[in-house]
Design brief:
Layout: H1 7-16, E1 35-40, H2 49-56, H3 58-72, E2 76-82, H4 86-96, E3 101-106, E4 109-110, H5 114-123, H6 131-139, E5 142-145, H7 146-156, E6 163-170, E7 176-181, H8 186-192, E8 202-205, E9 212-214, E10 226-230, H9 235-238, H10 244-254, H11 260-263, H12 266-269, H13 276-286, H14 309-313, H15 320-333, H16 350-353, E11 355-356, H17 357-363, E12 376-380, E13 384-387, E14 398-399, E15 406-407, E16 412-415, E17 425-426, E18 431-437, E19 441-446
Parallel strand pairs: 1-2, 1-5, 2-3, 6-10, 7-12
Antiparallel strand pairs: 4-11, 6-7, 8-9, 8-10, 13-19, 14-16, 15-18, 16-17, 18-19
Helix pairs in contact: 2-3, 3-7, 5-6, 10-13, 10-15, 13-15
The structure holds iron/sulfur cluster (SF4) (2 copies).
Residues 255-261, 277, 280, 313-314, 316, 318, 320 line the site of one iron/sulfur cluster.
Length: 447
């Protein structure tokens, strides 16, 4: 049992550790938890950012895990490590030998957000964690990813966050993991990975499942984990511009109610009532009618986790996630929300229905692209950086520099507004401030 930490020390640390976004851009919570699990397993196909960070800075990862464990009051600490990363497993076992940190190999399945990882661990309990009470312990556990833990270690040491490890994969000359200064344009990151042979190729910021297409002048931010570049005619892009009404009409005529989308639905397998095929059926009947006539099956759409797996499961090539998402947005616009989050109650058949990362790569048509080596393969520092002037929630930061001023690496550029939960912004490199705009960010020329 660790020695208790004085409350004033904890408070001082907590005040410095707020504002870290995960890969989904949401601020990570450091709520009390009896078990803290550090995730060292990427859940986007072809990404290996978490493995690369853990390989590059294992001690930093462990310091972050220890700091987070102290702040959460966790009695047990574990790292859930991709079981396909055998060298990393050996390195982390060596680094944690004699400590209280447990190493749990996990199968790389998708998606692998906190709930999915904990449900996987309930189904395949790690050594020294018997099914019961391990299941109850996992039900109250907190999961933080390797990048967030590494960031925590730097913040505890009083060091600024100036870079991101970014996986660059897909249609690029050299798939790799690059250490990019915050504010680097995504197009520059792609060029540093050998560039794309398709000038009309599309960059997906943070991948195809959880991410979104992004322009080349968008910048690397704290929540950036990777870029997937796809050729403009890749099948995964074909349906993205189809209006939801057209998708719904297509679904009504082609859906055979085979249930494949519901059998593999991530939310359904975690215990939600959501069944995409029932939402599709009800949406077809209710579309365009007033709210009071909505079928109860539609409410399940509010439990959708946006993983997009159902799109990859449909034998008729339909996109149930598009319709489910449209239904959820419409319900929210009408003021309908979930009263409380769905409790984690994994479906009895969940283990057999989970999708491996390898299978998903095939389904998404990504098999022709190689996965990068999970090591940091170079650094990117362009001549100009554009650092975000708004926090993750969109609140504007308060600039403390003026255009024309020189700045040193790590100098403060803008303060997060009080109570916003965001982080202050510092200069990732020595240079000069060229311009400041709340929407366009703080533009720096690098010396
Ligand atoms: S996107 Fe599809 S698979 Fe994922 S939770 Fe929503 S309905 Fe289920
Ligand atoms: S998988 Fe496709 S065809 Fe089957 S129920 Fe779902 S939407 Fe309909």
């Amino acid at each position: 049992m660790p020695a208790p930490v004085p409350s004033e020390v904890l408070e001082s640390l907590r005040s410095r550790l707020t504002g870290l976004p995960g890969s989904d851009g949401r601020i990570q919570s450091l709520r009390p938890a009896p078990l803290l699990v550090g995730r060292v397993c990427d859940d986007e196909p072809l990404f290996c950012t978490e493995a690369a960070v853990a390989r590059a800075w294992p001690e930093r990862l462990l310091r972050g895990l220890g700091a987070a464990g102290m702040l959460c009051g966790a009695e047990r600490l574990a790292l859930a490590v991709d079981e396909e990363q055998s060298e990393l497993l050996v390195a982390l076992r060596r680094a944690t030998s004699g400590s209280r940190v447990e190493i749990w190999p996990v199968a790389p399945r998708v998606p692998l957000d906190a709930d999915c990882l904990l449900a996987d661990l309930m189904e395949r309990p790690p050594p020294r964690l018997p099914a019961e009470p391990g299941r109850a312990l996992l039900g109250r556990a907190l999961v933080l990813d390797a990048v967030v833990l590494s960031d925590l270690a730097l913040i505890v040491e009083g060091r600024p966050l100036l870079h991101r490890a970014v996986t660059v994969c897909g249609l690029v000359g050299r798939p790799s993991v690059l250490l990019c200064a915050l504010g680097t344009p995504l197009g520059e990151v792609v060029r540093s990975a050998g560039g794309s042979s398709d000038p009309s190729g599309v960059i997906f910021h943070n991948g195809l499942l959880a991410g979104a297409p992004a322009p080349p002048d968008q910048s690397v931010e704290l929540h950036t984990r990777g870029l997937l570049v796809l050729p403009h005619d890749h099948p995964a892009l074909a349906h993205r511009s189809v209006p939801v009404d057209d998708e719904l009409r297509r679904t009504m005529s082609a859906c055979g109610a085979c249930r494949a989308c519901s059998d593999g639905c991530t939310a359904h397998l975690l215990g939600a009532s959501l069944e995409p095929h029932r939402v599709l059926r009800a949406a077809g009947a209710a579309w365009g009618r007033p709210a009071q006539s909505l079928d109860a099956a539609l409410l399940g759409a509010l439990e959708c986790r946006g993983c997009g797996l159902c799109n990859t499961a449909c034998p008729s090539g339909l996109r149930p996630a598009t319709v489910v998402d449209a239904v959820a947005r419409r319900l929210r616009q009408q003021g309908t929300e979930l009263c409380r989050p769905t409790p984690l109650q994994p479906h009895g058949d969940r283990g057999g229905r989970r999708l491996s990362r390898r299978r998903l790569v095939e389904r998404l048509g990504l098999s022709t692209f190689g996965a990068p080596d999970p090591t940091i393969g170079g650094a990117v520092l362009p001549a100009e950086l554009r650092v975000a002037a708004r926090g993750p929630g969109g609140a504007p930061r308060v600039p403390v520099v003026r255009a024309g001023e020189p700045v040193a690496m790590g100098d403060l550029l803008a303060l997060a507004p009080a109570g916003s939960g965001g982080l202050d912004v510092r200069s990732p490199a020595p240079g000069r401030v060229l311009s400041i705009d709340p929407d366009d960010g703080i533009l720096l020329s690098v010396c």
